[in-house]
Fold these 4 entries.
Entry 1:
Amino acid sequence: MELERESGWQLHPIGGETGQAYMGTRDEERLFLKRNSSPFLAALSLEGISPKLVWTKRTGNGDVLTAQEWCNGRTLDKNEMYMTSVFNIIRRVHGSQSLKRMLLRLGGTILNLTDLYERSLIDLAPDLRNHPLINEALMYVKDNLPEEENSEEKVVCHGDISHKNLLLSNDNHLYLVDWDSVVISDSCFDVSQLMERYIDPLEWDSWLDTIEFSKNRESREKVYWYSMLNLLEDLKHHHKKQDYIRMNNELLKLQTILNQMKN
């Protein structure tokens, strides 16, 4: 492989949708290698949010190859996502002004409420668009659009909060990885993904109380609104993958959320 020759490392593909990630081995050394990762990775490495960046190299075909320390550990289980440490690392990202300045310098995407709503309509398959429950949900989010945050209040958001993107090292350090979806947006964007994907909707209020997020009614309605939009995105994803079991489970969750929001 040309990439192996240029990098000097033997590459072993790591599972993932992009096919850009590898374990690199050379003698007894191991590194995590990725093609065309965001330049933002260097800032994340400095703040200890992602594993240490070792080097960056441009290959002959114009690709950029980044190498990070290989972290012995594991990704989190789904039933560990409620842990306070998960929210805390997300809060660290949201609270970092240096990360925000860096992402703005790199031309990072600013995601507004209306952008998120319009994105939910893009490529929506006809059978989803015509589904009564999804139609009701789309009407609800359109009619209850929250007030937009100003640019100063927006923060760096990971954009794809998943147990697969949280790595717990053997020395008990939690890292947030895979930053291909990073945006500047409302903090509700990340928190609602975590909540929608891993917390029982009937326990949302008590969980938000525990992490001390969205303390008043207006802000709580806002994080619920974001949760519904994220759930619609997940429904689209499962439908595209023809994963109808997960899609049906998400429809049941959507019904529960709609009932809570209307009440």
Note: The chain has two domains: 2-70, 75-262.
Entry 2:
Amino acid sequence: MTMKDVLDELSATRRKMGTATLPAGEAYTMELRRRYDAHVDDVWDAITSPERLSRWMKPVTGDLRLGGTFQLDGGEHGEILRCEPPRLLRVSWMFGPGADEWPGTSEVEVRLSPGSAGDTEFELVHAAAVGEPMFPTYGPGAGGVGWDLHLLTLTSFLSDGEVLDHEKFGTSPAGREFSRRSAAAWGEAHLAAGGTPTDVAAAVKATTAFYAPTEDAQ
């Protein structure tokens, strides 16, 4: 993937930080919206078919139906809360040691809208409880950069069936620049949502160091 491709993908996604209410209480949201040049049924299948989801995101197992549970090969897991093909999917999203002790603290919802030209408007909203431990350090970039990377992979998968190797891409010059610019973009969303310049700058710095550490830090 060329540097131009990376910059084009970054500009194709609109990012916003907002608020929501979860079963566990007040939450902040990481919201990503973009267009895919693919039919809504194809995009829906790519995000719900275990075989296709495993190719661009991570291998998935579980009872994949409304009310069932899922597990990704990476630790993320949860319950399927809403499933309305081919428009809406909502799941609880738990990750990390002890996450199951705080149910209702994290949810991901994907909304698809068919376009007039056979394309699809894609919106992903990840709501996380205000008290979750990552936000004070990383801000919305904690999950936002990761979702940017996954949507970049989905773009490649939908366009030509190719799967981006996250590990190789992440250490490439283009991948490191993508992560740096994604972290900065989430900093802009954080600032627009009312974050103080000092807090935002610290969060962007921490997020950048996590996703694109300097050679000395690796």
Note: The chain has eight helices and eight strands.
Entry 3:
Amino acid sequence: MAMTVNQKTSAWVIGASGFSGAELCRLINRHPYLQLSRAFASSVANAKPLAELYPELATVVNIDLEVWRDQNIDQDPLPELVFLALPHEASAKLAPYFLQAGVVVVDLSGAFRLKELNKYPEFYNFKHPSPEYLQDASYSLMELIGDAELNNLISVPGCYPTVSTLALAPLIRENLLCEQQVPVITATSGVSGAGRQATLNNSFCSVSLGAYAVLSHRHQPEIAQNLGREVIFTPQLGAFKRGILATCSARLGKGVTPAQVEQAFQQYYQNQTFIRLVATPPKIAQVENTPFCDIYWAVQGSNIVISAAIDNLLKGAASQALQAANHKFGWPQPSGVML
């Protein structure tokens, strides 16, 4: 049973100076069942009031960022819930300490998304320090987990896998796609997907629409794991701040009709608060700064194209993390998520 508003659950955000971490602070601050007790930056330079880093949060989130030090884990009292918005390897090292202390961990990195240990050196460039947790981590693509119970280690999907999986999963789960054909996904993300740290590649004067990490992006095995089949995934960087637009092309199985496609999407998503099945191809502008995934499809003969859009910092990160926490603690799904 969910607790009353006066019995708020204590939460920490570690990595609060990053884009996703700051969004989490904003959402938690308005959550009826959560109390943002402490927020941590990963560097001394960012140990300042959150509103100094993000002026739009002035008078919205009144919290000072502290420098994270490992000895913080030994402090009493610890929170009941911690959100890790950290680099992958940092989360992989830190999460076990909280879990051993009985804290629920919601991890926004890729540290626990993949079940195959050998994928981490190949796609994440590190040897996993906590492999014993990989099989126990609950992968929280919320619209597709149903009533499944989440473990104390909750792994939030990547932004590209979120939009791509939501676009294709109903068709694959209902066996509507041709088994011999590999779905092709082209997805364009805003530069906030690269994180807050400035580099030449994400500076305004350097960004131009183009593909990157072709056939080698770390989200490709995650998408394949989610769908249970291989995909061809090509990410692109667009000259805009936030949002992802994914175009998925596939071939329907023999005899599959448009009515069956419609039925599959309705069956999976008609009662999902944060999925909108739309009648025209979605634009990033209509999902920017929202927790929604908008999905459109078109069928021509045996060919199908699905177009889906999300805000990478919300549905692709912070708001989905909060959806998972709501599910774990038995709170209403929209709590703190609806803007």
Note: The mean pLDDT is 93.
Entry 4:
Amino acid sequence: MNDKNLFLLNSYDYVLPEERIAQCPASERQNSRLLFLERKTGKYADHTFKDIVQLLPDNALIIANNSKVIPARLQGHRKSGSKIELLFLEPAPLIDRKARKNGEYRIARTEVLLKGAKRVKPGETLDFPEMELTALEKRDFGKHIVSITYKDSLVPLLKKYGDLPLPPYIKREHGSEREDFTRYQTVYAKEKNIGSVAAPTAGLHFTEEIRRELLKKGCSWQELTLHVGYGTFSPVRADDIREHVMHSEYVEISAETAQAINNAKKKGCPVIAVGTTSTRSLEGMAQAFSEAKLGQNNAFFCSNSEELNENSLFPSHGCFGHTDIFLYPGKEFHIVDGLITNFHLPKSSLIMLVSAFAGYEHVMRAYRHAIEAEYRFFSYGDAMLIV
């Protein structure tokens, strides 16, 4: 393909039969299918996910996102009594951090998605369980800037009253989501890292047994935290993808994970990212650290200013911050050597990331095969391993 066409939005479109969109998880996590794609040659082969133990090299360092999905969808009503639905677009722990106290209450300004809010006007108040919301500003696509008033913490409130925010392409009868509370979480999701409004879905295929087998084989396992925002489902709307404004997401990389990555890169051990969220975390924070060492990124956090002089890819004491890195063809990858990922929506920033990593032609050819071979697509669908 002509290089200029790689920046055209329509280049990332493809026709997907509706029946290929997975509505439910596989019977068992490890029973998902796995398409193995070689980056250099474009060759692919069909496997099941449990084959990943044999397919990954013995000395691989695997990095996974341990954020846990929070029930971020709430049902409420207007003063008139009509029903309204709220979906938080910002991770609840971050809302808690910035909330100001007013007596026994907390007040925070945040962005939400309101369903059934066509006539909601600035200044109108809405009632939700143990929370009052005041609309401040209406934005595109159902988004609103609001002020929320609540007690203590938003996290236990959502855990008590909220529903899981399943992706919009999963269409089932209400009340059929009991299984989702376990299957729309990775087995390694940490309660202390709850906050995502969408699952890091590439990790849904892992079982504890597969992780044990990988460690027994000689692989290493480390984790980071990226609170996945609802922006992950937002399509790219700019005809020239370079004009797309990427959403920002919060990342934490511990000292242990940072040091493991630094050591792996020095020794030549491949770093395998579980999912696009892990990929964006690694590449985004490495870029931020590089800019900080050049004095170009003062917002990047280092626990020790002397680390800015280190000859390493990450500060040894770890780091945290927001990343809005957008990876599309032409962008370089400095950390990730292999990628485990699901099949992504047409025209999404995620399929652009995968195309940047594995090559546009290779990826689109692999997707065509996956459609013909009846792979299951999107969040509850099957996976790819790209090395």
Note: The chain has two domains: 3-69+182-386, 73-161.
